[in-house]
Amino acid sequence: MRSHLDTTHEPARATHDRGPWPHLTRPDLPIRIVYIWRTPPGDAQAHAVDRLASAWRTIGWPVALGSLSLFTSTDGETVMAYAQLSSEPDADALNRLSRLMTLPADTDEAPLPAPDVKTYRVARQAVQAPNAVPGIIAFIQIDTDNHDVARTWIDAVFDAMGSEAVPPAGGLSGHFHVALDGTRVVNYAEWESEAAHEAALRPGGSIGTSPAWRRVREMPGTRRGSFKRYAAVLTLDVPARVPILRGEAHV
To answer: What's the burial of 38, exposed, middle or buried (CB within 10 Å: 0-12/13-18/19+)?
Structure first.
């Protein structure tokens, strides 16, 4: 009999048509945990990726964990791990996840510095180009007062996107998450390229110019918006047990 204390078999590298990019619309994996490490200049980013990938292939996974992805920021400053889970992790699962985010036990190297960690639930998703493979993601973070503000802000973003006569060129999807404590929203937004995202943000671009976008920017109860662009390096998956959704999804 399996319990939440059991681990999965060692995962294999994802072989789906998205290469190192994760599938984000798996309804069997509604919980997402994000880990972000700051890396010094030089080879630290690549070295961190190698160490984490090694740990993921050698340490047992919690049974709730269905997918792990690694990303490097395009500015060279951070590494991000993105975990997809079937349920909120208990203490044992969190401990196992913590081990996955450090070095394998049999290495002599110093552990990575502690990452910034936040747990989210997927709230709303929109996929404009379901068969496209992204070039980068824009990982956007907004601090919010509570769950109600977070949900209202997400709905306002969808209203703003719907108010645009033409969708942003090169925008592929948006995946909005609300932190379990209601204090942050993230949008994992897939783009064809870094240049396409930069063009959308320029004055006169397709994002942030309408009154609906002004409501998004000025909404009470929201603070400190920021974003970084990332490229995917690796995704390891446990096979999906239900079909992957297409188009817009609400959770």
So the answer is: middle
